[in-house]
Amino acid sequence: MRAAPVLICVHACAGLLALVCLGDTLRTGLDDRPIALAFGALVAIGELTRWSGPQLREPAPLGAAGALSYALLGQCAGLPTGHGPAQVVTVVCAAALLGGVPHIACGRGPTPDDLARRTLTAGFAAACFQPLYNRGDFDSFTGPAYALLLVAVLALTALCDAVLAAALAHARTRWPFAPLLRDQLRALPGIGSAVCATGAVMALGVAVAGLWALPVFCLPLLLTQLAFRRYAAVRATYRQTIASLARATEIAGYTPAGHALRVAALSQAVGRDLGLSEPELTVLEYAALMHDIGQLSLLDPVPAGATACLPPEEQRRIALLGGAVVRQTGVSRQVARVVERQADPCGEQPLAARIVRAVNAYEEKARDAGPGGALAALEELRLGTAGDYAPVVVESLARVLSRERSDRPPSWVTHG
Fold first, then answer.
1. Rounded to 5 degrees, what are φ and ψ at 88?
2. Measuring CA to CA, how many Å separate 88 from each of 11, 100, 221, 287?
3. Would you state the pLDDT for residue 163?
4. Is the Cβ–Cβ distance between 371 and 407 less than 8 Å?
5. How far, CA to CA in Å, does 107 sit from each of 51, 59, 104, 295?
């Protein structure tokens, strides 16, 4: 996929900012060297403990908290600090690169987007706080008022980071910007709030107790990061279990190999194009993976598992059987509801069921039509929008296929 202009612009801005700040720091020298080294080590350790995975809002929360706390540091053990925004950006960038070296060597990050976000958010927070603090504009803020001031700056920084993350994701995937931003904002009360709170607490703690406060206040975030890792592992295992259940129809010879995975991948792409949230996309993915599981209850397999060509009554019977099987597996009732309603009349279906129905029909028709089958299948779905398939879903499917065709061969129509 070619780099979008917004990606080039963001990366160029981050790189230019880092170079300018590095030049200024080299020219003026490093102020408060022990403090700079301590926070640099904290950011580097945070990057070393980063973890990778799908849909992670902040893979290195300790590094992010350390960068924000250094950007909002005004005193150390009661003595004023002398660093400015340029030094903050220099220390954060150098530490992030140093901590990311082992991960880069293993080929798992940090990505240019991660580095750009870290650079720009640290620079934004430091630019909002350091010049005004060093000029004495915050001298009137004491006690709780000063803490609230830090929280306000962090909240504004988190908002800007969410917009930046959504813009980068939109540029890379071309998914709609509004749902991406909505998901970023919804994630802020989770790990985002933990990062901001730890950054504020560390800045306040170091101002009073000195650098000894850093290891003390890092512990809660490390425990939070460990809990998130365990949650991510449980979620990954859960998805693998569902994918294994979905393969039961393939192993039994009821459906072609890879059919469920292709339908799930394409359904998620259509769901993103239509603006579904992350929880809705998860339900959609699980339902798409298990949409054919009702065929296991049939005495005679459907030829090639092509249920889209069956009479409506038979489609509904298989869908209801599938919903009953899903309910027995302990999967979410929402998933079972989508599976059992995928063959209902179009006007009565929830959006997720409409997506699964249209994508399943497209995959079956494209698979059986041979060369040029993708376009023929799409046109056949368009002709069926009078009652079988939702027009908005079919047009979204067409947009997704068009985008993917312009970038690379779609994985869901690759057989072999």
1. -60, -50
2. 18, 18, 21, 47
3. 92
4. no
5. 12, 15, 5, 41
Dihedral angle, C-alpha 235, 59, 182, 16, nearest 10 °: -160
Neighbours of 279 (CB within 10 A): 12
pLDDT for 409 beyond 80: no
Quick one: tokens of 161?
């980071």
**258: alpha, beta or left? (left if phi > 0; alpha if psi -120 to 50):** left
- Encode pLDDT of 160-215 as tens digits: 999 999 999 888 888 888 888 888 888 888 778 888 888 889 999 999 989 988 98
Instruction: Quote the DSSP letter at residue 76.
Output: E
Contacts of 311 (CB under 8 A, 6+ apart): none
The span from the CA of 34 to the CA of 81, in Å, is 11
Residue 223 burial by Cβ neighbours in a 10 Å radius (0-12, 13-18, 19+): exposed
DSSP H or E run through 322:
helix 312-329
CA–CA dist 351, 349 (Å, integer):
6
- Greatest extent of the chain over all pairs of C-alpha atoms, in Å: 81
> How far is residue 281's CA from residue 290's CA, in Å, rounded to a whole number?
14
Cα separation, 26 vs 364, whole angstroms:
63
Query: Residue 233's Cα: distance from chain center in Å?
Result: 16
Q: What is the tens place of the pLDDT at every residue in 19-69?
A: 999 999 999 999 999 999 999 999 999 888 887 654 556 778 888 899 999
* Whole-Å CA distances, 104 to 47, 99, 112, 183, 298: 11, 9, 11, 28, 50
What local confidence, expressed as pLDDT, does residue 1 receive? 42
CA distance linking residue 318 with residue 297, whole number of Å:
8
In angstroms, the CA 64 to CA 99 distance is: 12
Write the pLDDT tens digit of every residue in 294-340.
Answer: 888 777 778 777 777 788 888 888 888 888 888 888 788 899 999 99
Strands 75-76 and 79-80: antiparallel
